[in-house]
Amino acid sequence: MESNNQPEDQSLRDALLGVSVPAGLNQRLLSRLRQEAKVDDELPRLEDSSEAGVELSRQDMPNQRWRGRRRQWLGLALALSLVGLAFGVFQWSRPLSTEQLAQFTLGQLDRLLGEDAVWQSDFEKQLDELKVLDGQVRPNVKTLGFQDIAGGPFAKHCRVWKLRSLTTNKAFYVFDFQQARQIPSLDEQLQAIKQTSGGWSSVAMRTGDHLIVVLVEGTLDSYLYQSQSA
C-alpha cells in the first residue's frame, strides 16, 4: 500500500535537492580521524605495569582499538549528518523564486506530454477551482482533465489541469499549488516568468494560499487576455 506520507517525503527530497556540504569538509574530517588513528597505533602498548599493578591482556588490546575506531567512525557519520541537516534547513528556509517555480513546472512537461499520462476526466466537482483564472485566461477552452502531483518545495500538493485552446487547438496546463509557500514578487495578476527555446512560456500568480502557473505553447496572447513582464 502506498504511504500517505509520499507527498511529504517528496517535498523533503525536493527541498534538500542541491544541498551541498562545505568544500573539503569530508576530506578534513577523514584526515583528522586518520591522524588520530595513526597516533593511537603509535602509542606504547601497556602489557605489564608493576607500578600500577595492572596487567593488560594482549588479546584485549585489538578489541579496544577496534572499539575506539568504531566510535570515531560513528562520530564522523553523525557530524556529516548534522552538517547535511543544517544546510537542508537553511535551504528550506531560503525564499523561493519565480525561476525555481518555472524550472519545476517546465520540468514536468515530458511526463505531462507523455502518452501514458493519466488524467482524471470526472472533474465536475473540482471545476470551480479554475475560476481563479476568470478574466485572465480566454474562455474559449475545453477542460480535458486533471491529475494530482507532489508540489516539490512549493507545496505538499499540486493539482495540474490539462486544457485545450479552441483557438490554437493545442493543450496547455495549469498548475495549482495548494497551501503553498509564497513568492513575494508575485501578485494576483499573471506575469511572465519563463520562456523556453522549445516555444513554451510560463506565467504565474499568487492568490490566497495558492500559487498558480500556466504553461502554454506559442504566443501568450492566444491564451491570455494580458500578462505582465517578469
Give the radius of gyration.
28 Å
Sketch the topology as an H/E string, one letter per element. HHEEHHHEEEEEE
Let me know the number of strands.
8
CATH topology annotation of the largest domain: Protein Transport Mog1p, Chain A
Give the termini distance in whole angstroms.
Answer: 43 Å
Q: What is the global morphology? A: elongated
Supply the CATH architecture of the largest domain: 3-Layer(aba) Sandwich
- CATH C-level category of the largest domain: Alpha Beta
Task: Assign a percent range to the helix content.
Answer: 25-40%
SSE class:
alpha+beta
Q: How many structural units, i.e. domains?
A: 2
Strand content: 15-25%
Write the layout of secondary structure elements.
Elements: H1 6-16, H2 25-42, E1 48-49, E2 54-55, H3 60-93, H4 98-106, H5 109-113, E3 141-151, E4 155-165, E5 171-178, E6 191-195, E7 200-207, E8 210-217
Antiparallel strand pairs: 1-2, 3-4, 4-5, 5-8, 6-7, 7-8
